[in-house]
Amino acid sequence: MPEDSSPIDFAGLVRKDDLVVCGQATAEPVTLTEALMAQAAQLPPFRMMIGPVFSETFSASCAGNVSFQSYGVIGNSRRLAKAGRLDVIPSNYSAFCADFAARRYKADVVLVQLAELEGRLSASLSNDYVIDAARGARLVIAEINPDTPFTFGAEWPEDVPIHVRVAARRPPIELASTPLDDVSRRIAAHAAGLIADGSALQFGVGRIPDAILSSLSHARRLGIHSGLINDAVVDLIERGAVTNAEKGIDAGITVTNQVIGTRRLYRFVHENKAVAVRPTSYTHGQNVLARINRLVAINSALQVGLDGSVNSETLNGVAIGAIGGQLDFVRGANASCGGRAIIALPATASDGTSRIVADVETVTTPRADVDAIVTEWGVAELRGCGLAERARRMIAIAAPEHRDALSARLRGPAR
């Protein structure tokens, strides 16, 4: 197939009411998505499925005939949500990806960013739902990007045709780590005490996971089995803290579903057989996670209730987060021999309100699944505790100025 270096013309390719699916996060094929949004006003109405957005491609000013959908509100997709233009599908990440494989979601057009090496193709930075979406799509358009790493585990299947190839005009998206602050460092210091040598780590994007990872340089024999990896993982590997020797599976291999970072990370994973970018059914599968030794899941939240219920999705009725893989990994860590499920968050929001609340407005992780909650004020070990004791432990890690008000909300062990 000839490779077209000019901007693609989507006229006639995107049809009325099509579902267009594109790569997410750093795997977004920006040459294609920018061209699509630039031409959208001249196209028939269509639906656009997106994931986390770290580019400037999608905004409230995009043509009104585009309807946006996502499994959460992460990164710059918050602009669409704030404008009322993002329809959120409340789904665990594992189930969302499985629904493409089962054809519950039927993609019509798929836009994907690929790496090419000696005639072989790789999905490179993400091995999520895009391959399964492409398998049943009418049209697959691949942006071949020479600056993306060729990763193992994410090889493009030979039985999934690519109908159009376009040369990338931009390097892949980069997402640098957010500078740490005093609160995140204090949270990390408490969380690090829960992570033993030989643990296998899962973590997300953001200042708090980065702070926790940066606090583990003293640890030994760590493993990585995560929904994503970032630049902080390279630090841990280069310092000798990560060996992947004791996970019980995938000895010597860092396993991830997505690669989200900078060129330093991309250079590290390129043709690196010690890193596997595996499909969601493997990275988030309960049968896999239960086999990992001492899996420690590190996730964050918007609110945690006095009973331990976790809200990572909404505030004041507005979607600003996601279920994502949180519940997948919390339950996986609980099933892992010696595993821990950590929810780490600042005790107060930027407006000074407490993020430890009497009752959360949306339950992302049910109280029955919760293990340990960490704030800058300490650790609340909740597994096995009754409601009254849970409330006392949660109040103890709330900000001091909010503890009296929270205590006043207590109504005994049956609240």
Structural category is alpha/beta
Runs with pLDDT <50, length 5+? 1-6
- How would you name the oligomeric state of the polypeptide chains in this document? single chain
**Number of helical segments?**
13
Radius of gyration: 22 Å
Distance between the termini: 66 Å
Model description:
The protein contains 13 helices and 21 strands. α5 packs across α6 and α12 runs antiparallel to α13. It starts with 18 loop residues before the first strand and ends in a 7-residue tail after the last helix. It has 415 residues and is α/β, with parallel strands linked by helices. It is globular, with a radius of gyration of 22 Å. β20 and β21 form a beta hairpin. The strands form four sheets. Strands 1, 2, 3, 4, 5, 6, 7 and 8 form an eight-stranded mixed beta sheet that branches. It has an eight-stranded mixed beta sheet with strand order 12-11-10-9-13-18-20-21, with helices on both faces. Helix content is 25%, strand content 21%.
What is the structure about, briefly put?
The protein has helices at about 30-40, 75-80, 95-100, 130-135, 180-190, 205-215, 230-240, 265-270, 280-285, 285-290, 325-335, 385-395, 400-410, and strands at about 20, 45-50, 65-70, 85-90, 110-115, 120, 140-145, 165, 200, 225-230, 255-260, 275, 295-300, 305, 310, 315, 320, 340-345, 355, 370-375, 380.
Topology:
Layout: E1 19-22, H1 30-39, E2 46-50, E3 66-70, H2 77-82, E4 86-88, H3 93-101, E5 109-117, E6 120-122, H4 130-135, E7 139-144, E8 164-167, H5 182-192, E9 200-202, H6 207-214, E10 223-229, H7 231-238, E11 254-259, H8 263-269, E12 275-277, H9 280-283, H10 286-289, E13 295-299, E14 303-305, E15 310-311, E16 314-315, E17 318-319, H11 326-335, E18 340-344, E19 356-357, E20 372-375, E21 378-381, H12 387-396, H13 400-408
Parallel strand pairs: 1-2, 1-5, 2-3, 3-4, 5-7, 7-8, 9-10, 9-13, 10-11, 11-12, 13-18, 14-19, 18-20
Antiparallel strand pairs: 5-6, 14-15, 16-17, 20-21
Helix pairs in contact: 5-6, 12-13
